[in-house]
Amino acid sequence: MSAYKLLLLPGDGIGPEISAEAEKVIAFLSQAGVAKFEIERGLVGGAAYDAHKVAISESDMALAQSADAVLLAAVGGPKWDGVPYNVRPEAGLLRLRKDLALFANLRPAICYPALADASSLKRELVDGLDIMIVRELTGGVYFGEPKEIVTLENGEKRAVDTQVYTTHEIERIGRVAFELARKRRNKVTSSEKANVMRTGYLWREVITALHKREYADVQLEHMLADALGMQLVRWPKQFDVIVTDNLFGDMLSDEAAMLTGSLGMLPSASLGAADANGKRKAMYEPCHGSAPDIAGKGIANPIAMIGSLGMAMRYSFDNAKAADAIDQAIAGVLGKGLRTIDIKGDAPSSISTSQMGDAIVAELKTVLK
Ligand code: NAD
């Protein structure tokens, strides 16, 4: 078994606490012979600023470039509010995404049956929900030029953002979605505003052609982004994989995450282009931030972080056995009623970060027996 090169970036706030729990899982998987790791550690965000006055050092960027995957916990916090803009904690994240060319953001919205009552929707609408939002991450209106605010002759100001997509950008994100669907329930919903936007028109045309040419075995539907926003709260279980642009993906993935009632439990993956050997640069991280309000108290929920490790096992290391085991172990501890404070609800008590990590490792032992 060859070793997976994993760069761990614990970052700030609760980052190091939840990262330590992911390391327990890594140690267990190695010891159980399910996976072999070569672990490097680095600094990102405020931690990198404190040490080197940058948001991520060149040597840590080099480690990220040579790793099979990066596992990042979270960055940021009030301590670094006043640091120069170009070295603020988030700049570390953006540099990683940009330099590794991570164009595909995968955000699952999973509703564990044990937590269905935490959703703002009725239990029957979300119980067992499992959808994957694939958001284009490096193009579209956040990056298109011109992007400016100009003062007109009459003294009024005019702001411009430009939505741009090329065939190539749409095809490569479409491929990620179709490939994922084949490993799931084989359905892709592609979303844009083809009725009012030229980029939406091209998006639909390119996805339709790609589907016909290479993925005719996958069920494809097109849905306008506003209708999709509505359908997500009306009947979310109709979806499997949703693929959409940067702006719509930003909004729809947050909406989908909230359906699960547990934003703090959700992992994410950002993937780059496949090389000649089919390998992609990749970064995995929880959807939540560094939670400075609870940092250092030992009460953060490590599940999104451990779930992110699970996604790395599935998408970077092609180790479905380990990924499935992690998913089952998370569902298992929740099924037993174990809760950290953020998902406590009406439960009589809650457990600490490290108790949750230990419980997941104990459950993994049973799952992998
Ligand atoms: P946040 O996600 O850090 O926290 C929001 C709320 O959820 C807080 O009450 C927090 O205690 C709680 N929470 C989050 N994760 C939790 C966990 N694992 N267990 C228990 N409770 C959890 O968002 P915020 O408060 O808006 O941002 C805090 C800092 O994080 C800011 O500096 C922000 O810029 C940064 N941030 C970083 C990322 C990232 O690293 N990808 C993402 C979002 C925000």
TrEMBL record:
Keyword S-adenosyl-L-methionine on entry: no
Pathway: Amino-acid biosynthesis; L-leucine biosynthesis; L-leucine from 3-methyl-2-oxobutanoate: step 3/4
Cofactor note: Binds 1 Mg(2+) or Mn(2+) ion per subunit.
Alphabetized GO MF terms: 3-isopropylmalate dehydrogenase activity; magnesium ion binding; NAD binding
Binding site for substrate: 97, 107, 135, 226
Family statement drawn from the similarity comment of this UniProt entry: Belongs to the isocitrate and isopropylmalate dehydrogenases family. LeuB type 1 subfamily.
Task of the protein: Catalyzes the oxidation of 3-carboxy-2-hydroxy-4-methylpentanoate (3-isopropylmalate) to 3-carboxy-4-methyl-2-oxopentanoate. The product decarboxylates to 4-methyl-2 oxopentanoate.
Subunit structure: Homodimer.
Name the UniProt record assigns to this protein: 3-isopropylmalate dehydrogenase
